[in-house]
Amino acid sequence: MTKKIILYVVLMLATTGTKAQQNEAQPFRAYLYNNEYNVYLRINLYDQDITIPGQELYGQLPGFLGKLHNSFCWVITSCRVKDDTEAELQLINDFGSEDLTATLTITNDSTYVLRQINGSSLKVPNKGKWQKLPKALELKKKK
After folding, report:
1. CA 56 distance to own-chain centroid
2. Which three-class secondary structure state does DSSP give residue 69?
3. Which residues of 29-60 are buried (b: 16+ CB within 10 A; e: fewer)?
4. How confident is the model at residue 25 (pLDDT cuts 50, 70, 90)?
5. Which value, in Å, is the radius of gyration of the alpha carbons in the chain?
């Protein structure tokens, strides 16, 4: 019995280490957040297998920009990873009425910048009104 427990623990530790290494090798598979605006970016630009909670109708996507305590989101409809530090994103709001092009750039191992290039402005609901997000939004990677 003890051997089985030890084997299980060793396998769990090995799997955890492999996942951590895989995430480091794929920097555009992450959960990013900005506390100032209460927004987050959930992405997997490689496998494009993100499902938006409560909005499964969209199917699997590269990711989305969400607002804490709100179901509103900006959906990433397509993406292109340029290199290990930059990706280009196409986003639409969840109503489908606005769209934009943005880049996501890694500035260091835990900081990313979402920069709006052209199209509509990123807006999210905040206390019953629309709040514009800055053209360059800094996001931190959740570890």
Report:
1. 16
2. coil
3. bbebbbeebebbbbbbbeeeebebeebeeeee
4. confident
5. 17
What pLDDT does residue 143 have?
79
Average pLDDT over residues 40-54: 97
Determine the Cα–Cα distance for residues 121 and 134; give it in Å rounded to an integer: 9
Pairing relation of β-strands 111-119 and 86-93? Answer: unpaired
Q: Is 53 helix (H, G, I), strand (E, B) or coil?
A: coil
Question: How buried is residue 102: exposed, middle or buried, by Cβ count under 10 Å (0-12/13-18/19+)?
Answer: buried
pLDDT band for position 14 (cuts 50, 70, 90): low
- Per the DSSP assignment, residues forming a β-bridge with 73 are 66
Identity of the amino acid at 72: F
pLDDT tens digits, one per residue of 67-111: 999 999 999 999 999 999 999 999 999 888 999 999 999 999 899
Q: Rounded CA gap, 116 and 113, in Å?
A: 10
At residue 9, the 3 state secondary structure works out as: helix
Tokens of 96: 């489908």
> By C-alpha distance, which of 90, 89, 112, 101 is closest to 27?
112
